């Protein structure tokens, strides 16, 4: 008997206390917490599909997920129930019933990551960004971004693994700096494991002067994950 209803969730969370999105045996992930609540509501086994995994400690503004079920509930009922029962560092922003063909992972057309660095002490940004108080050459970092845009195979900047799609369509990468907060926003077709953290790590190394533009391009051209040297914290 096939499940008859498919619900799409948009989820936000502060990931500090969690091991990432994915359900794991020896740690607590966001997926597990929401799945467990949905199973109580629907009284059946629920599998929550996320648009992608996140590392431990990573936050989400709009993580898309979906699940299928045999029985119907009003989207507003699911929304109210989850937000009443979830811990305060996780919230569901919207719930809607969608076509049975929708899959949060395989229907995704692109993903955006925002990486925040703050360069002056601020307790309200603690745990929400990377505190980095050394001088950064923003112009050099922008040059590094231009190098990145030339390549699709970014496997040298990812964690080693067997990827079905090594080529990443890096659609947009923006850098904003107001003198205190440095935001790096990256939109792509998909991301390889640790790719965003390694891109940021290498751009910061360029800004610090510990990596040249030429060395950065050589690392990318190698297509060898062992050549990547710099990993930003989650």
Summarize the structure.
This protein is an alpha+beta fold and 234 residues long. It has helices at 30-42, 75-85, 138-148, 195-208, 213-222, and strands at residues 5-13, 49-50, 60-69, 90-98, 111-118, 130-131, 170-177, 181-188.
Q: In one word, what is the shape? A: globular
> Order of strands across the biggest sheet?
2-3-1-4
**What is the helical fraction, as a range of percent?**
25-40%
Quaternary structure:
single chain
Topology, element by element:
Layout: E1 5-13, H1 30-42, E2 49-50, E3 60-69, H2 75-85, E4 90-98, E5 111-118, E6 130-131, H3 138-148, E7 170-177, E8 181-188, H4 195-208, H5 213-222
Parallel strand pairs: 5-6
Antiparallel strand pairs: 1-3, 1-4, 2-3, 5-8, 7-8
Helix pairs in contact: 1-2, 3-4, 3-5
Question: How does this model look, in words?
Answer:
This protein starts with a strand and ends in a 12-residue tail after the last helix. The protein is built from 5 helices and 8 strands. Helix 1 (30-42) crosses helix 2 and helix 3 packs parallel to helix 5. 30% of the residues are buried. The model has no long low-confidence stretch (mean pLDDT 92). The chain has 2 domains: 5-98, Pseudouridine synthase I, catalytic domain, N-terminal subdomain (Alpha-Beta Plaits), CATH 3.30.70.580; 111-227, Pseudouridine synthase I, catalytic domain, C-terminal subdomain (Alpha-Beta Plaits). Helix content is 25%, strand content 24%. The strands form 2 sheets. Strands 2-3-1-4 form a 4-stranded antiparallel β-sheet. A 4-stranded mixed β-sheet has the order 6-5-8-7, with helices on one face. With 234 residues, it is of the alpha+beta class.
């Amino acid at each position: 008997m096939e499940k008859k209803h498919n619900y799409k969730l948009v989820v936000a969370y502060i990931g500090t206390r969690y091991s990432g999105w994915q359900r794991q045996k020896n740690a607590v992930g966001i997926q597990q917490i929401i799945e467990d609540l949905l199973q109580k509501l629907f009284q059946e086994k629920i599998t929550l599909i996320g648009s992608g995994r996140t590392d431990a400690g990573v936050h989400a503004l709009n993580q898309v997920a979906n699940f299928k079920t045999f029985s119907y509930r009003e989207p507003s009922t699911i929304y109210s129930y989850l937000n009443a029962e979830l811990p305060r560092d996780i919230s569901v922003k919207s719930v809607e019933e969608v076509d049975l063909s929708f899959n949060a992972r395989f229907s995704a057309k692109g993903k955006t990551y925002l990486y925040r660095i703050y360069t002056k002490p601020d307790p309200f940004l603690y745990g929400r960004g990377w505190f980095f108080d050394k001088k950064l050459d923003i112009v050099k970092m922008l040059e590094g971004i231009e190098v990145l845009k030339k390549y699709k195979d970014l496997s040298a900047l990812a964690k080693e693994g067997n990827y079905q799609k090594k080529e990443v369509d890096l659609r947009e990468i923006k850098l904003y700096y107001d003198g205190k907060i440095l935001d790096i926003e990256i939109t792509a077709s998909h991301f390889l494991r640790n790719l965003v953290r390694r891109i940021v790590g290498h751009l910061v190394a360029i800004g610090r002067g510990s990596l040249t533009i030429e060395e950065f391009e050589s690392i990318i051209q190698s297509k060898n994950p062992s050549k990547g040297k710099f990993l930003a914290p989650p």
